[in-house]
TrEMBL record:
Alphabetic keyword roster: ATP-binding, Kinase, Nucleotide-binding, Transferase
A GO molecular function held by the record: glycerol kinase activity
Residue ranges of every copy of the Carbohydrate kinase FGGY C-terminal domain listed in the record: 3-51
Superkingdom as given in the UniProt entry: Bacteria
Originating species: Candidatus Scatomorpha intestinigallinarum
Record PANTHER family: GLYCEROL KINASE, SUGAR KINASE
Name listed for the protein in its UniProt record: Glycerol kinase
Any one GO biological process: glycerol catabolic process
InterPro entries the UniProt entry points to: ATPase_NBD (IPR043129), FGGY_C (IPR018485)
Annotated Gene Ontology cellular component terms: cytosol
Record-stated family: Belongs to the FGGY kinase family.
Amino acid sequence: CGPIPLIYADGGAKHDSFLMQFTADMLGCELAPSEVEELSALGAGCAAMLALGWTDEPGLAARRHLPGFRPAMEPARRERCYEGWKRAVKTLL
């Protein structure tokens, strides 16, 4: 599939700058917080519009997002943090 260059973020977590930067660093791709608080609801609404044949909405395909977070962590530190993150997730599961 190849590398993912950009991931859109929504919900309450998008307001946590530390979490957004850490996630961008761990995933190695840019995170772009959406202006829309809940993209799931917007997606469901857009799917319903398309199902009804309403395809002439000019903003339907527009992707609006806030300034993003780009990976900035040094590779060695990223690897240490990633290993710690995997241990934390394993503990929770």
